[in-house]
Amino acid sequence: MLKAMCAAFALLFVLAHPAAAQLSFKPTAESVHEDQLLNALKEGDKITGRISIPDAMAASLIQPAGRDWRDFHRSKLPIIAGVTIIGMLAVLAIFLAVRGRIRLDNGFSGAKILRFASFERFTHWLTASCFVILALSGLNISFGRTLILPLFGPDSFATMSAYAKLAHNYLAFPFMLGLVIMFLIWIKDNLPERIDLDWLKQGGGFFSKGRHVQARRFNAGQKGIFWIVIIGGVLMSVSGSFLLFPYISADVTGLQFWTVIHAVIAMLFISAMLAHVYIGTIGMEGAFEAMGTGEVDVNLAKEHHSLWLQEELTKGHVPSGGAPRPVAAE
Amino acid sequence: MKIFLAALLFAAVAAVGVAIALNSIQQPSSVAFTTGGARVGDPGHNLVGPS
Q1: Which of A73, B10, B13, B29 has the most C-beta neighbours closer than 10 Å?
Q2: CB spacing of A173 vs B16 below 8 angstroms
């Protein structure tokens, strides 16, 4: 009786687990486990296939470096953005709270002198307006799904993102044009000089009231911004071109490399421009007029660009408007 | 203000001009990266379609 029951259970077990009944034959024993395969592939390795469609990149079947790239976008890029952009905003807020707005020691004189001609301002605003849209739409590409999608919902977010992507792609071209023109018209005034070291040593006079450092048309801080814009703009343009025309690189790894470059430079670029916008608006009294109307108060020129003012007066460029009040010599 | 508006207008016109130029010299991805045998008649209105 017991023997019959054991036989019945054995038969039931075999019927219920046919694979287990054939353990001597393991068709998957030599097959590749995905995690082992991915771990075995070295950096830069990829498994490719043979395709007939005219899309070379579609031949890449497995590319483990993509996991690092995904990890960068999900984990590291938000940290970089937080440190650079939010960090810069925090620094500027602290600077404003501690130092306050940098005011003209001698007030406004009422006399104005031309600082930027019409074409220079046109070039500045062309580049700046494109940059603002490129920055916002770029941040949306990186963080919109996390930050904006929950606020507006998928339909609105998708529509907005589609238009933002188009704007990002095509406004890149007038932005690059603006970069080239800015380089050509301002390079001569942005070459490093010995007086830039003095300006830097004294922090531009920003940290103590009543102290002014001599500068020509652009002080060392402004020269720094110029070179950040030019070098950062070139890096963004080159990396962006690979993303705009992905078949230039014709390689998934190459595209991932350029997206990392594009994203990191973008965060640094945006944070630098936040500082530029700050000092050009609320940070310094009278500074915005330089790019607003093109003219600045003579006292601003005396306090922050004294050597440039002397050069302008020597050239016969007479200030217009009210009579400037005398200012103590520096 | 006029210069600022002129810069905005120029940027918009330049962007549209570039878009038209690039669209005229490039094929949609649904055409460029498929062969005739695999090409669908209406790729739809998504990222790979003509629109």
Answers
A1: B10
A2: no
